[in-house]
Amino acid sequence: MVVRHLQPGRVCLPLGTAPGSGYQAPCWARAADPSRSQPAPIHSCEGCHIDARGSQQDRLQPRRAHRQYLDGGVQMTGQTIGHYQILEKLGEGGMGVVYKARDTHLDRFVAIKVLPAERVADASRKARFVQEAKAASALNHPNIIVVHDISSDSGVDFIAMEYVAGKTLDQLIPRKGMRLNEALKIAVQIADALARAHAAGIIHRDLKPANIMVDSHGQVKVLDFGLAKLTEQGATSEDAATETIGVKTDEGSIVGTAAYMSPEQAEGKPLDARADIFSFGAVLYEMVTGQRAFRGDSKMSTLSAVLHKEPAALPAEAPHDLSRIITRCLRKAPERRFQTTADLKVALEELKEESDSGALPEATGIPPGRFRRRRALLAAVLLTATALAVVGWHFLRPRMKADATLKVTPLTSYAGVESAPCFSPDGNEIAFVRLDEKGEHSDIYRQVIGPGKPLRLTTDPATDFAPAWSPDGRTIAFLRALGRSRAAVVLIPALGGQERVLGETTIRYRVLAPPRGLDWSPDGQWLAVCGTS
Question: Which of 250, 360, 429, 432 is the most exposed place for a label (fewest CB within 10 A)?
Answer without folding.
Answer: 250
